[in-house]
Amino acid sequence: MIKYCIFDLDGTLLDTLPTIKHHLNKTLKDYGLSEVGDSETKRYIGDGAYQLIFRAFSEQGVTEEKTVARALAEYKAAYDANPYYLTKIYDGITDALDALLTRGIRLAVLSNKPDAATRSVISHFLAGKFALVRGGTDGIPLKPNREAPLAVAKELGASVGECAFIGDTSVDILTGKNMCAALTVGVSWGFRDKEELISAGADVIASHPSELIEILEAVK
User: Fold this and answer.
1) Domain that holds residue 24
2) Average confidence (pLDDT) over 65-83
3) Domain check: are 8 and 61 in the same one?
4) Which of 47, 86, 144, 219 is disulfide-compatible with 51, CB 3.0–4.6 A?
5) What value does the mean pLDDT take over residues 7-18?
6) Backbone torsions φ then ψ of 139, nearest 5 degrees
């Protein structure tokens, strides 16, 4: 039986693509580089802010470490100063979370987004829903490494056999597999397509948040 759900953030709970693209493009423009669209931004997302900036800059021929590090610091500062701009909760997420809570399931967030921004947006958009919220922190490997999700499970008092990991990218599916979660759920409303989630080994695909209750209750 699933007693705990650990959720990814970007592309799973919140549609942050316009926000990320806005701050990324501001950073690119500041360095005289071309702006990018939704499809490029989606490809860059998933492995933390450093990889976002590195991928965006390197595709335009900028790989110098000091430049990328400086751009990353500027991107993070701009994002932290205005993390809510253009962000929206996906339709059906609030109802789905409330339904899970009503059934006694404890909820957590584990994101590769920097920790300060992760906590800030959850507090703003989904306050009171989660027992634990964690973002990327210096010294702790990002998803899909198993260290962070196992630490989240331990802090929740959960065994991995009671946990579902839910996310929208192959990184999230691999995270669930690496932590040996009882169930790894791919969501198709986010930043990657269904085929990526299946290829990564998702146990099941949810096409709308309303499907999560039925999916979780099917696990015995």
Assistant:
1) 17-81
2) 96
3) no
4) 47
5) 98
6) 90, -10
